């Protein structure tokens, strides 16, 4: 059986906790993916580094507050089974993401080249993380990982077609 490459998917959140005794779980998700979650019948859960498909059962999807949703998957039919997958990251296929804004979702920035106005090319975006609402880019910079905050104050421009991000980074953030 062939697995789906993680590069073809977008991380939308994580399974926060079990709900009830019949295998329901609570997904904590980033709000820009609400429409995509509502439309999806299959979610990919990262287990031991592999993306495993989980299909929505008839009880399906029930949105709760702001960024949480109740999910009921086929074959997850007990509280114990639900607990086993809690804490795992949840993904959707990239081509199933419904874009609600003109700007690319932050996860869509993987693979973009990052440039600084002072030093030129910094490196390629390997990962995009959200730390309590603070977006951080993990960049491959000369063979090592570099974490760069990604906020409006630092962005000069984003070239979607050319897959380039131009930033004005604070002096001293990058050691040459």
UniProtKB/TrEMBL annotation:
Keyword 4Fe-4S belongs to the record: no
Pfam families for this protein: PRC_RimM, RimM
Molecular function per GO: ribosome binding
One GO cellular component term: ribosome
Keywords linked to the UniProt accession: Chaperone, Cytoplasm, Ribosome biogenesis, rRNA processing
Ranges for domain RimM N-terminal: 12-95
Positions of the Ribosome maturation factor RimM PRC barrel domain: 109-173
GO-annotated biological processes: rRNA processing
HAMAP family: Ribosome_mat_RimM (MF_00014)
Entry protein name: Uncharacterized protein
Provenance organism: hydrothermal vent metagenome
Lineage, opening ranks: unclassified sequences, metagenomes, ecological metagenomes
């Amino acid at each position: 059986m062939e697995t789906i490459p993680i590069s073809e998917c977008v991380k939308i959140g994580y399974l926060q906790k079990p709900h009830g005794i019949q295998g329901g779980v609570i997904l904590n998700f980033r709000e820009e993916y609400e429409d995509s979650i509502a439309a999806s019948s299959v979610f990919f859960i990262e287990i031991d580094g592999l993306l495993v498909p989980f299909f929505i059962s008839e009880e399906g999807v029930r949105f709760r507050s702001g960024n949480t949703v109740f999910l009921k998957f086929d074959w997850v039919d007990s509280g114990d089974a639900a607990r086993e997958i809690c804490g795992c990251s949840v993904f959707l296929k990239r081509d199933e993401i419904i874009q609600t804004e003109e700007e690319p979702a932050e996860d869509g920035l993987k693979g973009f080249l990052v440039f600084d106005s002072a030093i030129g090319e910094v490196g390629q975006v390997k990962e995009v993380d959200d730390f309590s609402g603070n977006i951080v880019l993990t960049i491959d910079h000369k063979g090592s990982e570099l974490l760069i905050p990604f906020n409006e104050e630092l962005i000069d421009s984003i070239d979607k077609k050319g897959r380039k991000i131009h930033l004005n980074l604070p002096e001293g953030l990058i050691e040459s």
